[in-house]
Amino acid sequence: MPAVTVPDLTILPRVAAVAPAARQRAVRSITSAPGGLEGEGFPVKRAFAGVDLRDLDPFIHMDEMGEVEYAPGEPKGTPWHPHRGFETVTYIIDGVFDHHDSFGGGGTITNGDTQWMTAGAGILHIEAPPEHLVVSGGLFHGFQLWVNLPRVDKLKPPAYQDLRSSEVGLLTSADGGSLLRVIAGEVGGVTGPGSTHTPMAMVHATIAPGGSLELPWRSDFNALVYAMSGDGFVGPDQSPFGTGQLAVLGPGDALRLSAAQSQQARYAAGLDVVILGGRPIREPVAWAGPFVMNTKAEVMKAFEDYQAGRLGQPGHAIPHGTQGGTLDA
Predict the structure, then answer these.
(1) Of 2, 250, 268, 272, which sits with the fewest C-beta atoms within 10 Å of its C-beta?
(2) Which co-factor is required (predicted)?
(3) Would you say residue 204 lies in a domain?
(4) Annotated binding-site residue? 132
């Protein structure tokens, strides 16, 4: 698992020990992600399936893409498609992915790179493996997270951030046994490169077998932990938790994770997790397909604009307040 690795964790800043008076976040639920197919047929795990949107807020959706070893000719992507009203965050751990959008954003990401696309008022984009990967085949693994936008930002002009792996904030756990890659937000005094419209944090952590990780966590954020590989434990009661599972944590000031001492051979690195948290937006969510708005009328307007060729094209931005429906519904 390339992502971002460091040969010597001792050179990194360490997370300060959690204060004894800090309230540890208890486990509210643990769910297993079902498998599915996305785009032209690449395999995904639906990380948030079955979880109430109120527990996810400000996040909407997350797919773990792969992990899959493609044979020559097998790599797949998505055709051109629209979005409005939220942001997509595409984080590649293994493999290569190309992105292009109707506003000129895009490029190639690989091994720890992230593409952060703000759809805002509307954008069209395509995501696909480059031709050389289609020819050769190879390992592919990553995530796409959907982050909701508050109503005041839903019709902002589209924007794009290209976050290179070299920009990711790096630190280690208090015991020196965990590598934390901070993609967005501030964790333990280290800030990630992602610029966000709503306060949030996104961290990819690898916890060595037998290691533990305690993180201070903003009390106004929710807390979600998704295990991409390995076996471990989560919460103050150390509930068992492993590959393909999402833990939703309750209120508090800190969170606790640990990796089982004994791991399956393929998980020799330990427990690999994505940790997410954000300040809930607490607004109505109307979601259909590629559009996430506040009302059903706004979603219908997005479909109408897309079908009429008005969505995702420069010069067709929609003035705030004219998208249809009422913002107070």
Answers:
(1) 268
(2) Fe cation
(3) yes
(4) no
